[in-house]
Every structure is written in C-alpha cells, then in structure tokens.
Specification:
The chain is of the alpha/beta class and 319 residues long. It contains eleven helices and nine strands. About 6% of the residues have low confidence. The chain binds xanthosine-5'-monophosphate. It comes from Entomomonas moraniae.
Length: 319
C-alpha cells in the first residue's frame, strides 16, 4: 500500500541496510528534494549524516539562516554552512555571459563542497536528492531543478576518481510523492511546496555581470513580491514567481527630486512541466501593490515591469 508512512518506513530500512555504520554526506540546497533527503536520512541514520550547505551569495533573502534554523537548530541535523559569497562573487566579477556564469557557479560549488567534505572523516557515501524525472532526463543541462552537485555527480556523470558510493532514496519517486513524504517527515508545508529555484540562483536573474549591490537589491525586491503573493493567496496558484534585475537605469520622481535608479521585472508563470509555460494573469491590484512597495521601499529601484512572455518562445528565466 502506497502511503507516505509506509514508504518512509521502507526507505529508512533500505538506507540503514545500505550504509551500515558508515558516514554519509549530503549537499543541502534548501530545495525540496535535498531537504526531504536530509529529513529522511536524519530519521534513518541520525548523526551518521552530515550536510554541507553552500551559501554562494546568490540565495534568496534569509535563505541560509532559514536552512540552518530548520535543519540544524530545530531538527538537530549536522549541517556545515560554508559562507562562500566572496569567493563566488570574486570569480564572477566581470563575467556577463550566462553560460559562463552558470559554469563558474557550478565549478565553484564543487570546489567549496569538496573542500568542506575533505575536512570530514570517514565519509563513504554521498546522498543525493535525485528523483525519478532526473533519472529519465539526466542528460538535460537545464532541467527544472538539477542543483549543481547533481549535474556533476549525477547518473552517468560520476567523476572517475570518486570514491563515494551513492545513496539516492528518492530515485523512484515523482515530485508529488516526494512532497507528501516531506510533509509526513514533518517539514513545513511552505517549504515542501516552495517554488523551484535554479541552482545558479540569483546569478541567472541578474542580467549580465553580477555585483553584490545588484544581488542585495534583487533579494529585497524578490522578497516583497513573494510576500505579497502569499498575502493575496496567489503564491500556490502560480508555478514559479520571482524578480529579475536589469542593469539599466531609468528616471523617476520622488518628492521634489529626480531619481535615476535601477529597473526590475516581475515574472510569474503557470506550468505543469516547466517545458511550456503561460505568464500568470495576476490581478492588477496585486501588481500595483508589489510595484508600489518595491519602488517606495527600495530607494535604488525606480521602475517595475511585468513580464508577459510565454514559453516558448521565451524561457522562464531571463538568462
Ligand atoms: P527555463 O528558463 O529554461 O527554466 O524556461 C525552466 C525551469 O528550469 C529552471 N532553471 C534552472 N535550474 N539550473 C537549475 O537548476 C539552471 O541553470 C536553470 N535554468 C533554469 C527554471 O528556474 C525553471 O524552473
């Protein structure tokens, strides 16, 4: 009988058999799949699990703190947080080509992840949040979720010298099943049903060269958009929503003065499979509220636009 409780029972059993007394390493991104794996492995093998969470400086507002408070503080999972913002932003300085940005972010992730895991003793297994659709389309470079460790260490892509054996408890599950298991394991609804977030994070939502200043502004604007979507009960009606930073300045008026500041675009889409998508028909009142808040609360943003492009021919992300 397929119930989340049965599946969890079964999976914890299997994991225990597979790893025995060995230690397991997991790259925790804060996304649904790796979070569910963390919760599951914690239940199955407790302190034999160590997670590494890499803060690349391109995460959403408070994301790193939230991951730490949920897993480390609340659940007692061993999580090592690597604060690598300066390293990532340093390597990204001067780079504006989207594919090159992705590559740098991916490689730097591996570098930091390896560095952190090399400090640990006696790790024999690497756990991953691979789910069934990843197994099928493991070749896709731009899938809906592949965080970097996946595309690097993933099915068929294992580096030759990798000594770690894989633990992939979600390999046979679809996304909706993973979510149900997450809830059953006690993860909060808003975590389990969070919109997908690309591996390169805000790095592909800052057009062109990435700067710390831009990431800071984008984080604030994105936070406002998401907060208002929740307030208006629209968050769970759209498949993905976010703000895009445009390194373009536009004029506005504030009080008696002229303001020459940055432009951002709101993006919200409805989709089943992320291969095609329709821009979400958000209520004008909601767009108005978001736009007012962003322009009033963030001094360095003077204009907000709404992206009405569908996929295809546009993509969901702007880069
Ligand atoms: P596009 O922009 O291709 O996005 O229409 C489809 C879905 O994929 C996500 N996306 C990525 N995810 N690494 C990821 O892990 C990436 O480089 C990447 N690019 C796009 C995007 O957020 C959407 O859900």
């Amino acid at each position: 009988l397929w119930t989340p409780a049965n599946i969890i029972e079964d999976m914890t059993q299997k994991v225990r058999e597979q790893v025995g007394n060995a230690n397991v390493l997991l790259g925790l991104s804060g996304g649904v799949d790796s979070s569910v794996v963390a919760a599951l492995l914690h239940k199955a093998i407790g302190s034999q699990l160590t997670c590494v969470f890499v803060d690349n400086g391109l995460l959403r507002l408070h994301e790193g703190d939230q991951v730490m408070s949920m897993f480390a503080e609340n659940m007692g999972v061993k999580v090592i947080r690597a604060n690598a913002e300066d390293l990532f932003l340093g390597k990204l300085a001067g780079i504006s080509d989207p594919e090159q940005k992705r590559k740098i972010i991916g490689n730097t992730f591996i570098e930091v992840f390896d560095q952190e895991s090399n400090k640990l003793d006696n790790i024999q297994f690497l756990a991953q949040g691979t789910i069934y659709p990843d197994v099928i389309e493991s070749a896709g470079a731009k899938t809906g979720k592949a965080h970097v460790i996946k595309s690097h260490h993933n099915v068929g892509g294992l580096p030759e010298d990798m000594k770690l054996k894989l633990v992939e408890p979600l390999r046979e599950l679809f996304k909706d099943e993973v979510r149900k298991i997450g809830l059953e394991l006690g993860l909060p609804y808003n975590m389990v049903y969070r919109h997908p977030f690309p591996g390169p994070g805000l790095g592909v939502r800052i057009l062109g060269e990435i700067k710390k200043e831009y990431a800071g502004l984008l984080r604030q604007a994105d936070h406002i958009f998401i907060e208002e979507l929740h307030n208006a009960d629209w968050y769970h009606k759209v498949s993905q929503a976010f703000v895009v930073f445009q390194p373009v300045k536009s004029v506005g008026v504030v009080g008696d003065g002229r303001r020459y500041a940055w432009v951002v675009a709101l993006r919200a889409v409805e989709t089943i499979d992320f291969m095609t998508a329709r821009w979400a028909h958000l209520p004008y009142e909601l767009l108005e509220k978001v736009s007012n808040r962003i322009i009033n609360e963030i001094e360095d943003i003077s204009r907000v636009t709404y992206d009405v492009s569908s996929k295809p021919p546009a993509t969901i992300e702007w880069e």
